[in-house]
Amino acid sequence: MVISFHKANFFCKKLIEKVFSVALIATDNFEIDCEVDVSFVSEEQIKNLNKTYRSVDKITDVLSFPQLQIKYPQKLGEFVSEISPDGLLRLGDIVICKQRAKAQAKQFGHSYKRELAFLALHGLLHLLGYDHIEKEDEKIMNDMCEKILSSLNIKRGENV
Question: Residue 54 is part of a domain; what is its CATH number?
Fold first, then answer.
C-alpha cells in the first residue's frame, strides 16, 4: 500500500502505516496494490469540508472521500479494471482533524495513539466499502475496527 501523507509527523505516519497494513490483511484486501491519501487539517478546514461535501455545518473528526464505489462485502480484487497504469488502485482520501482526535482521546479516557489509530482505520474501512448507516452494518464495521486494533494491542480506555 502506498500512503501519501499531508501534514503528518513521523509518529502518525508509522502508526497509520501499521494499522493500514493489518487492516488490508484482516479485510482480505491484501492482494491488490492500492493508494490512499491521508491529510491532517484544522477544525476550521474539516468543518468547511464537512459543510461542502456532506451539507453538515459542524466540526467532525474524520472524513473519507472514496474514489471507488465499493460496497461491503466486495473486495479490491473486483476492481482490477480500475488499476492505474502505475499498478495502483486509487482508493481515495482520508482527512483527520488532530485537534478533535486529541479532545476525543481525553473525553473517552484513552491515548491519543488509540484515537488516531481508530479514526484512520475508520476512514480506511469507509474507503473499503464499510458503512455504519444501518445497525447491522455498524456492528460489522465496529467489530472489524476492534479486531484490527486489538490485534495491534491498541485498546479502548487505556490512557497511555
Answer: 3.40.390.30
